[in-house]
Write a structure and sequence with these properties.
mainly alpha, 6 helices, elongated, 76% helix
């Protein structure tokens, strides 16, 4: 189980790297074409927008898994341990609900978006929205892992 979860984590991090690299290269190509060749690319801005959307929705669960999101814990650290644990549990449940809601409503949106194409690239818009589904599914997986650790601390190392 640990190996599979580790592989998923690394795959998501590699996807972030690949997406960032792709839209950075396209941005550099656009600058070169516009200012050196005088021939701006008509599709680069749209490509970069879609890349940013994918990157953000995949980066959210990666940062959440690493504990890198900014948190306001000034009140939380002053709470008694039992209340703190309850609040932490509520936070994990809310993350899971957010992930499920984003996934559910994006899938509904994709049913309509399959009939639309992006203007510059000609890509079907449901393919563009797939990044939201992937990111929210990964977010749900991370939230479930963290919930299991709350209820079964002995499994923390197995799911880390």
């Amino acid at each position: 189980m640990r190996f599979a979860l580790h592989a998923v984590d690394r795959a998501m991090e590699f996807a972030l790297f690949a997406i960032f690299l792709a839209f950075s290269l396209v941005g550099g190509l656009q600058v070169f074409n516009r200012f050196v060749l005088g021939l701006p690319l008509s599709w680069s801005e749209e490509f970069q927008k879609f890349g940013h959307v994918w990157m953000v929705f995949i980066a959210i669960p990666v940062a959440y898994r690493r504990g890198a999101h900014i948190g306001m814990d000034a009140v939380l650290v002053r709470m008694p341990a039992a209340i703190r644990r309850g609040v932490e549990l509520l936070i994990e449940i809310l993350w899971l609900l957010l992930a499920l809601a984003v996934c559910f409503y994006t899938l509904r949106l994709m049913q309509v978006a399959q009939f639309q194409e992006s203007p510059a690239l000609g890509w079907r818009m449901d393919h563009v929205y797939t990044g939201l589904v992937i990111g929210s599914a990964y977010l749900a997986l991370v939230a479930l892992r963290r919930l299991v650790v709350i209820f079964r601390p002995a499994l923390a190392e197995e799911l880390a």
